[in-house]
Structures are given as C-alpha cells and as structure tokens.
Amino acid sequence: MTQSDPVLCAPSRPHAFSPRATEIIAAGRRLLEAEGADALTMRRLGAELGIQAPSIYKHLPGKYAVELALVDEALAEIGLALHQAVRHPGPAGSVASVLAAYREYALAHPNLYRLATGSRLPRGSTTPSLEDWSGEPFFLATGDPQVAQAMFSFAHGMVILELDQRFPDGSDLQRTWDAGADAFVSACRSRSATSAVAPAPGPEAEVH
Amino acid sequence: MTQSDPVLCAPSRPHAFSPRATEIIAAGRRLLEAEGADALTMRRLGAELGIQAPSIYKHLPGKYAVELALVDEALAEIGLALHQAVRHPGPAGSVASVLAAYREYALAHPNLYRLATGSRLPRGSTTPSLEDWSGEPFFLATGDPQVAQAMFSFAHGMVILELDQRFPDGSDLQRTWDAGADAFVSACRSRSATSAVAPAPGPEAEVH
C-alpha cells in the first residue's frame, strides 16, 4: 500500500438530515455513548433536547431511525480510520495497522460499536455500500476475501471480548493482538506463495 | 496430538445439586435454549415445573444461580467437545478440528453459547478451573498462549457474527473458517521456527 493507492470504492455518505433531525441524532449519540443502547428512548431524547417526545416524530420516524443513523455514523468513522490505517501503515505493516485502528475505535466508542455490530438491528438495515466500504481495508491489507473476513472476525472477537471483560485477569492483550496480526500476515504470505500465477491485489508486503 | 496424550488439567465438574435443583436447572436450560435469556425468569421456571415461583428459592437462591449453573454446563460441554477434537484431530489437523468443534457446539446451542460468553454475567462469576479447562484445547492445538488466545478470539468472533447474521448474504463461511484455520496453523509454524531452542508443547503438527 502506498499513499497514492486509490480507495477502490468511493465512500458512501449517510443520508442528509434536516438541522433538527441532526440535533436529535447528536443527542441520541450522547445518550448512547454515555449510558448504552437502553438509554436511547424517545422520552430521554425529548428530555435531552428540552422538547416533548412526540415532537421528535415530526423530524424522524422514531428511535429506530436514530439508531440506524448512528450505525451509519459509526460505519463511516470506522471506515475512515481503517482506510487511513491501511494507507499509512507504518513499519508494522498494514495488517497490524488496520487491527490497531479497529481496536482503538471500538474501545473509544464501546456502546456505539456494540450497536453497529450486535444483533439489535436486523441484518440488512444498515447502508450496504457504507458497510462494504468500512470493511474494505481488511481486504486491502490481506488481498484475499476469505482471509479478510477471517481477520475481521478475529478483530471483532478480540474487541467484543475485551469490552465484555471476558479475558482472564492479567492477560497481555497487546501480545494477543500481535499474535493475531502475525497469523494473518503469515496467512497472506502462505496464500500468495501458492497463487503466484494470479497474485491478489494489495497484499501485506511488509516484513515484520 | 495422539490419543494417548494426557489432558494437562483434570476437568473440573460443576457443583453437585440436589435432585430438585437439578430439575430446576434442566427446566431453565429448556427455556433458555428455546426462547433465549430473557425467557429465563422465576415465573416461567415455576410455570414450567408446575410450582409457585417462590418455591424455587427453597432449592436455589434465584435466577442468577440457574444462569451460573447453565454456564458451567456449557463450559463443561464445550471443553469436552474441544478436548475430543484436539485428541482426535483427523487429517485436517488439530487447529481446524478445534475450530470445527467450537463452531458446531455454538451453532447447536446459540442461546446457551451467548449466555456463557456474553456480558450478562459479571467477569469472574464462572468456575475458573472449568473455564481454563474448557479453553485449554486452543493451547494444545497451537502450543503458544498468545496464539491460542488469538485463535479463541477468532472463533468467538466468527461464531457470534454468524449467530447474529452479520455476514453479508452469500458469504462462504466455511471458506472463511478454513482461512482462519490456515492463519493460525501458519502462525504456529512461524513461531516454532523462531523458537527452535525451546519448542512449545503440542503445536499443530499436521501438514494441511
């Protein structure tokens, strides 16, 4: 990956909202990030904005629309962080760089991360092009769709176990992230060695 | 791994319960597996057993005790499945065998799996020796504690994303599991090649 590499898909942007709807979504984000998804109710939103809850419906069709808008925000922010990570990987290489950016985002926004990746919203409710773009850096770092999906699963598993405090006390999680990065770098090398005829685009190139 | 390899830690067993408490826990498992964790209430347990909910407290201190007993059951069952997988890996090798057994268990018992691995129960509430034993096959298959923890995180991430239906439609998840297995096999090889002085016990030996 070099800085001049094009981003393969143009980033999709969340829908445009009216100024008032944007305020409501921002209030929803404050509630969600501070207190978790259960705090995100129309009543709490109304209190936060100093208006009656039913007035919110003039601007957005309900709590579900607020949640979807926040998931789009999260996907856009994760995508931006990961695309930057894969374009400017540093000496550790693009696999490690993407994993570090993913971890940093999720740990900084645990409740937003849970909303965007958990089972609360039905499959297919997010903006597909945005979800694809957000996950694309896993492919750019590995050059293989299956390795990319496996690496994403590792990142999600690590993050959600870390957020849920499911690792034993005293676990050196940085070393575990490093071991995962090593595994997916090894997988890229192994796959490119066995498919030298048609190399996949953009595989991890750095020697770690 | 050969069939005669000793299991490094003896399996811990869940606490002994009275016959009535055992019935209550079994009813709790039926409710949990059929309807999810929210269905596991003292009222529903009473209805399931044909007794008044308060009578349950004569045998168990409450819903929390039922949940803990079910998590112990899940850890024991997962541990058994994984220890069998690592001792009888078949031609694909012990990493792939452990991952396949983990996936099979979780997909067969989604609600029990979620209860045992999610954030519902506080960290440290499960039986530590049982949790250690249950996870030990990841170490036996990789020979490295960090690679083992990374491989477990991958397995959990894959399973929970699969249960939550978060993968895009048309994803070939078996190939993604295979790619993850390849990555952790490669990581084992890479680590054992760089630590030839003191090889870790029980690393993945099969050529895939």
From TrEMBL, chains A, B:
Pfam families on file: TetR_C_33 (PF13305), TetR_N (PF00440)
Residues within the DNA-binding region(s): 41-60
GO MF annotation terms: DNA-binding transcription factor activity; transcription cis-regulatory region binding
Key words, A-Z: DNA-binding, Transcription, Transcription regulation
Organism of derivation: Candidatus Protofrankia californiensis
Entries under InterPro entries matching the protein: Homeodomain-like_sf, HTH-type_TetR-like_transc_reg, HTH_TetR, MT1864/Rv1816-like_C, Tet_transcr_reg_TetR-rel_C_sf
Occurrences of domain HTH tetR-type (ranges): 18-78
This protein's name: Regulatory protein TetR
Lineage: Bacteria, Bacillati, Actinomycetota, Actinomycetes, Frankiales
PROSITE patterns named among the record's database cross-references: HTH_TETR_2
